[in-house]
Write a sequence for this structure.
């Protein structure tokens, strides 16, 4: 008779004629995790609550008593000398933060405003330069006084810059 939960679940699955692929597809548990459960190789599982959840889902899908599966899992862990409430240690963060920084938040805010101001000024200058380059130059009218007629009466006339140069 089967003594470990892995053996019990495998036998119940085989009796029901359910493949590991079917269980994997329906429970969304990886095939390698299901195989690890059946061989009682819990080191290949993520650990902690995930192990219990995977075993519970597996048992439920094949019609095995979930409570009995959890009790058998706990007994298997005790046999192997592992704690049932095994808690994984949190991985050390590789993110470097300024948690112990002595810089004032006011200084950080002022630097952010300064950077935004410089960027805005640069964008405005680039836009102004681009618009000057792309707009065609139009001859601007120049008002010039010419003597017109035989009596020497001055009348204003409008000419272009090109006419004024002549």
């Amino acid at each position: 008779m089967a003594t470990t939960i892995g053996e019990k679940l495998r036998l119940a699955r085989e009796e029901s004629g359910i493949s590991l692929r079917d269980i994997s597809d329906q429970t969304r548990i990886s095939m390698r995790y299901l195989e690890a459960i059946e061989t009682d190789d819990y080191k290949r599982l993520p650990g902690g609550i995930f192990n219990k959840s995977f075993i519970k889902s597996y048992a439920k899908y094949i019609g095995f008593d979930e409570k009995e599966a959890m009790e058998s899992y706990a007994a298997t862990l005790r046999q192997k000398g592992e704690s049932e409430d095994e808690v994984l240690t949190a991985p050390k963060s590789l993110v470097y933060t300024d948690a112990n920084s002595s810089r004032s938040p006011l200084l950080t805010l002022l630097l952010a405003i300064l950077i935004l101001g410089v960027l805005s000024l640069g964008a405005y200058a680039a836009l102004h330069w681009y618009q000057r380059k792309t707009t065609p130059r139009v001859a601007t009218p120049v008002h010039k006084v010419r003597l017109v007629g035989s009596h020497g009466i001055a009348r204003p006339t409008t000419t272009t810059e090109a006419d004024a140069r002549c």
